[in-house]
Design a protein that fits this description.
Helices cover 49% and strands 15% of the residues. By secondary structure, it is of the alpha+beta class.
Length: 225
C-alpha cells in the first residue's frame, strides 16, 4: 500500500515549462539531465511537500544507487514538478542536492529509477538551494505589479474604444471597463496592505492578493475576450 501511495505521488507530477534549452550532458551518461537557471529560480520559489517518498534510494537502469530522495517541489501552479535528490555528502558536510524533473523518474518493480543517469552526472549539476522567504515575497510582489500594470494598459485601450463607440456597444464597453476598474482598485488595495506588512507578515495577506489578482485577470479576460 505504501508503494502504491508513493508512486501515485509521482504519477500526479506535472513538468514546469522549459524556458531555455540549456542542459548539461555529462560524459558516461546516456541521459541529458539538468535544470536551467530560469527553471531553478522558478522551482525554488515553489513549496516543498513531505511524502512517503522521502529517503528512498534512487537507482539508474543498471541497478546502481545514484542518490536518495530528499524532497519534492510543488511549483507555484501547485504541480509536483521536481524531485530533490541527494547525490552525495551529508547534511552540513559536502551535501549536494540537485533538482531533477520528475518526468525523468520511473517506477520499476517498486524501485525509484532514473534511466541513464549516474552519480557523477548528478554531482555535475548545480546544487539546489531553497529560496529565502524574502525572495519569495519579492517575486510574488513583482508578479502582482506586472499583472496590475497590464490591467491598466488594457483599461486604457477599453477607454479609447468606448470613447469612439456608441449605443449598445459603448454601454457594454463602459460596463466592462467599470468592472475592470473595481477589480483593479481591489488588487491595488490588497497589494498595498501586503507591502505595508513587511517581510515578517506578508504571508498573512498573500491569499487575499492572489484572490484579487485572479478576479482582475478574469475581468481583463472578459473585457478583451
Amino acid at each position: 500500500m505504501k508503494k502504491t501511495l508513493l508512486f501515485a505521488a509521482l504519477g500526479i507530477a506535472g513538468m514546469l515549462t522549459t524556458l531555455t534549452a540549456a542542459t548539461a550532458q555529462v560524459a558516461g551518461s546516456t541521459t541529458t539531465i539538468g535544470v536551467t537557471i530560469t527553471e531553478t529560480d522558478h522551482l525554488a520559489l515553489g513549496w516543498s511537500v513531505k511524502k512517503g517518498i522521502l529517503g528512498k534510494t534512487v537507482y539508474n537502469d543498471a541497478g546502481t544507487k545514484i542518490g536518495k530522495v530528499q524532497d519534492l517541489i510543488i511549483d507555484p501552479e501547485r504541480n509536483v514538478s521536481y524531485v530533490i535528490i541527494g547525490a552525495g555528502g551529508f547534511v552540513g558536510l559536502g551535501q549536494h542536492d540537485v533538482a531533477v524533473p520528475i518526468a525523468q523518474i520511473r517506477d520499476e518493480a517498486g524501485k525509484i529509477v532514473m534511466p541513464g543517469a549516474t552519480k557523477e552526472a548528478l554531482k555535475a549539476l548545480a546544487p539546489f538551494n531553497y529560496a529565502s522567504d524574502t525572495t519569495r515575497r519579492d517575486r510574488f510582489v513583482a508578479e502582482a505589479d506586472r499583472g496590475i500594470a497590464s490591467a491598466k494598459q488594457e483599461m486604457a485601450v477599453l477607454d479609447k474604444k468606448a470613447s469612439n463607440a456608441a449605443g449598445d456597444v459603448k454601454a457594454k464597453l463602459d460596463r466592462q471597463n467599470e468592472n475592470l476598474r473595481v477589480d483593479l482598485r481591489s488588487a491595488e488595495d490588497k497589494l498595498s496592505k501586503l507591502n505595508r506588512a513587511g517581510v515578517a507578515h506578508w504571508r498573512t495577506f498573500e491569499g487575499d492578493v492572489s484572490a484579487a489578482m485572479a478576479r482582475l485577470k478574469k475581468s481583463v479576460g472578459d473585457a478583451t475576450g
